[in-house]
Amino acid sequence: MEPIEGRCLCGGIRYQATPPTLFFAHCHCRWCREAHGAAFVSWVGLTEERFRLRDAEGLLRWYSSTEQSRRGFCSRCGTTLFFASTLCPGEIHVTRASIPGEIDRAPQLHCFYDQHVGWASVGDDLPRYDTGAEGLAKYRVVKPRE
């Protein structure tokens, strides 16, 4: 498969990643919803070693959304692109919407589903995992396709 390429709205921040991806999940947690202004956010997990950032103008800024997690966004256009956390070392999560092309997998699951909003419906049959150790453990066992 070809490298995955993504970018922010203005194109000032671009990235490239070499498959395989780690997962493709829809997150319903409060922090994702508030950071994106959306009912949920679709994330693609990548290993940091397969990820390359291109930010020639130094536009990337990071916001610490919790003690262990941070979100990367473009300081010019405001696009939130990245998520990184000490809870998943060696990984970078990128927004699926920032990738215009295909990737190596379809959506796999909904995580933090117990935090979903009541004003939007999810109409797929993907597994839905709640917050907490059991739900997070199931979320973290999604393995890359080789």
Task: Give the CATH topology.
Answer: Metal Binding Protein, Guanine Nucleotide Exchange Factor, Chain A
Number of strands: 10
Number of helices: 2
The coarse overall form would be globular
CATH class: Mainly Beta
Compute the separation of the termini in Å: 11 Å
Alpha-beta content class: mainly beta
Helix-strand pattern:
EEEHEEEEEEEH
- Biggest sheet strand order reads 6-7-8-9-4-3-10
List segments where confidence is low: pLDDT < 50 over at least 5 consecutive residues: 141-146
The whole-angstrom Rg is 15 Å
**Major beta sheet, specifics?**
7 strands, mixed
Beta-strand content estimate: 25-35%
Examine the secondary-structure arrangement and name the CATH architecture.
Beta Complex
Question: Mean pLDDT, nearest integer?
Answer: 91
What is the total number of structural domains?
Answer: 1
Helix content: 10-25%
What's the short story on this structure?
The chain is built from 2 helices and 10 strands; from the N terminus they run E-E-E-H-E-E-E-E-E-E-E-H.
Structure explained in plain terms:
The protein is 10% helix and 34% strand. The protein is mainly β and 146 residues long. The chain has one domain: Metal Binding Protein, Guanine Nucleotide Exchange Factor, Chain A. A hairpin with a 4-residue loop joins strand 6 (60-64) and strand 7 (69-74).
List keywords for this structure.
146 residues, mainly beta, Metal Binding Protein, Guanine Nucleotide Exchange Factor, Chain A, seven-stranded mixed beta sheet, three-stranded antiparallel beta sheet, disordered C terminus
